[in-house]
Amino acid sequence: MSARFRRRDAQETFLQAFKFFALSSLSVIAFDALASVASVALGFPYSYTAFGSAALYIVLAFFAARMFGFWAAIALGVVMGITDVTIGWAVSWAIGPGRYDVGTLTPSDWIFTALFAAVLGAIYGLIGGSVGTFARRRRPAGEPQP
């Protein structure tokens, strides 16, 4: 295979990964919006939606590992965590839950929260990526190994 074809394949893979990461980030924002509306409308604590958020991270990391490899799943978890703590939090704040009183959220608190969300996203990416990588390598009985 020539270098030109390998470069084109790498560019196509990068574009596919970029689209997947962007759609995954949008799904986090949409989930935050829906969870915020449900929390306000039904009166349950917004923190209960953390389980759904974790499931979303893990499932998308699983597919990222299947399509792009293990490290992409971890990177996706970090990107989703950062998206969640920035745009997702802003959307949630605008709807109602996640709102802090003026002056109570200091820059150091926000930085700690952002780092925590990125690390937690990486952990979720590790979980989904591990399962996705393992499932990617398994072959049905009778199918030849590459």
UniProtKB/TrEMBL annotation:
It comes from the Bacteria. Keywords: Membrane, Transmembrane, Transmembrane helix. The keyword Transmembrane helix applies. The chain crosses the membrane at residues 20-40, 46-63, 70-91, 111-135. This is Uncharacterized protein. It comes from Montanilutibacter psychrotolerans. The lineage of its organism: Bacteria, Pseudomonadati, Pseudomonadota, Gammaproteobacteria, Lysobacterales.
